[in-house]
Amino acid sequence: MAGVTPGKTFTPGLDFSAQSYSHLADKVEADVSRAHHIIKEKLPLLGELKALLSIAFGDKAPFFIDARSGTAAVLDSVDDEPDTRLNIKPEYISQFYDGKLEPRYGLFKDAFFNEASMPSGRIPVAIKFADLLTPHPPVPPKTADKFDRLPQPTEDLDQVRRDVNEFGYGIAKNVLTAEQVAIMKKAVQEQAAGERDAGIAQVDGGPNGPNQRLWTLVNKGDDFLDLLNHPIIDEMIPWFLGEHAIITTYTANIARPGNVPMQLHTDQVAVQPPIRDLAFGMNIMFYLEDVTEKNGATRVYPGSHIGQIAPPDIFTVDGTAAAAAPAGSALIFESRLWHATGPNREESGERPVILLFFMRSFIRQQENNFLSLRKDVWPKLSDRVKRMLGFYTTGALGGVDGEVREGLFVEWKEGVGKMRAAHGR
C-alpha cells in the first residue's frame, strides 16, 4: 500500500525495489500545488469564515487565510495572532474538495497519532474551512427545542421503528426486567473492577479519565453471550440492515461524574468517502441504570440522520436532546445520527450501558473477531452468535480458500479456518 515500505523479496527475479512510477517528493509537491489551487478557487466562499486562519502542510512554512472582513485573501505572513491554526496533509484538501473525505473525520483522525496535527484555537473555524471546500457543504442540524415532539420510551416497537425513521433513534421500554438489569449490571461492574485492578482499564471522558469502556464483551462472561439471544435484536436489526448484519462492536460504557461530553460523531464515520444516503449500521444500547440528562444520557441531534447535515462544532452538545429513559430500556439508533456520550454532572454513582452495534454484512468490523475471540469462548458459541460475529458466508463474502457459497459456517479450529455447511450439512 502507498506509504508502506515493501517487504523483503522471496523469489529471485521478482525484486521490484529499483522500479518506480513516481517519486515521493514529486507527489508531495503535486499535492501541495493542488491544495493551494483549490484554496484559491474557493476564496469567494471562504469569506464566510470571518476569521484569520493559519495553514501548514507538514514541515512547510504556514500561510494564512484572512477572512476577517468577510472577503478572503491568501497571505504569506501576518502580524496578528491567528484565530485558528491547522496543520494538515495537503492531500486531505483535495479529498475534501473531491467529496472523498468527511471534514470532521479528516481534520482529527491524525491527531490520535500525532498531536501536532490537532487543530488549535477556534476549532469551528477549521471545521467550516474544510466544509466550504467540499462539493456540498453541510447545514447545521435542527436543535432539539425546535421539535414539536421527540421519541419517548415505549413498548410499542412499531412506534420505535417510526421514531428511528423520523428522528434517527427510538427508545424501547422494558426490554430488560429488573432481574435481568441486575444481572447485567453486576456483570459489567465486576468486569470493570477487574480491569481496573489489573491496570488494563480503558478510560476517557476528560483529563482524569472518569469514563470506562469495556471492549469485546463476547469474551467476558456467559452473561454477555446470553444477552445476544435477546429478541429485540431480531425485531430491529433484520428490519433495518437485512438478515446478514454482523456485530462490529460489543462493548460497555460507564459514564462517571466529572466527565466531559464526548465529541459529536456518527457511527459510520469510518465509511469514506462519506455516504449520507444509506445507513450502514444500527446500535442497541441497553440501559442498566435510570439514564437521565444529569447522569450522562447520550446526547443526540434529532433528525440529523437525513441529508447533508453536520454540527458546526463537534465539541459541544448544546442544542442536542438527552435520550433519557428508565433502567431496562434500550436506545436504538442508526449510524448516521449525530450523537455523543453526555456529561455526568451527578456527584456520585455511575451510568453503565451496554452497546451492541451491528453493521451491514459487507462492512469491515471494528472488532476483528477472527483474531480477538478467545479460544476458550469458541466452543460456547451458538450458530446464531457465530453468524453475528461474521463466521458465516454471505453471497461471495467471508469464505476460506475460495469457498464462498451462501450459508457456510467458518469453523475456527487451532487458528485455522475450515468450512461446514449450515445445519451440519
From TrEMBL:
InterPro entries: Fungal_Metabolite_Diox, Phytyl_CoA_dOase-like. This is Dioxygenase. It comes from Neoarthrinium moseri. The lineage of its organism: Eukaryota, Fungi, Dikarya, Ascomycota, Pezizomycotina.
